[in-house]
Amino acid sequence: MNANTYDPSADVQGDFQGPHYDRLLTPATLLDYLGDHVGVANGQTAREVVLAICGFATAFGERRLRTLVVALREAGHPVCADPDHGYFMAANDAELDASCEFLFGRAMTSLKQISAMKRVAMPELRGQLALPMRSNPTKGNSP
């Protein structure tokens, strides 16, 4: 069996797949669970979160969890995570800042890889330094 093949024996309950997670692992259930895990000291691994909410855990469930975490963050919820402590809600500004720094560092690592692969300076990845000049700069902000 290759590394990309689903192996149900590796899961707590291999017969549960996507539809069950859609019903059990929702933004509301995740927020409720994380509400009981405030502060870095109360962090939980992805597997622990999925297992606690659903009663079983699979790699698919962990992927769904990560998708929901992104959605909750984009909605403004202070869902934090780090490799050493897992997922938790920020207890204070310092924890939120630390989590944001972690995410920023991860994003910068990805941008550096893209920059190296494309052999282009990071500021030029999206043309920041090569923006076209307006043909009539006196018009201000009008389209």
Structural features, described:
This protein has a domain of 84 residues: Arc Repressor Mutant, subunit A, CATH 1.10.10. Helices cover 47% and strands 6% of the residues. A two-stranded antiparallel sheet has the order 1-2. A hairpin with a 3-residue loop joins strand 1 and strand 2. Helix 3 packs across helix 4. The N and C termini lie far apart (57 Å). The N terminus is likely disordered.
Average pLDDT figure: 82
Number of strands: 2
- What is the CA-CA span between the terminal residues? 57 Å
The CATH class of the domain at 8-91 is identified as Mainly Alpha
Question: Quaternary status of these chains?
Answer: single chain
- Widest sheet: strand ordering: 1-2
Q: What secondary-structure arrangement, pairings included, does this model have?
A:
Elements: H1 18-24, H2 27-35, H3 46-54, H4 59-74, E1 79-82, E2 86-89, H5 93-118
Antiparallel strand pairs: 1-2
Helix pairs in contact: 3-4
Features:
mainly alpha; disordered N terminus; two-stranded antiparallel ribbon; 143 residues
Summarize the structure.
The protein is mainly α and 143 residues long. It is built from five helices and two strands, in the order H-H-H-H-E-E-H. It is 47% helix and 6% strand.
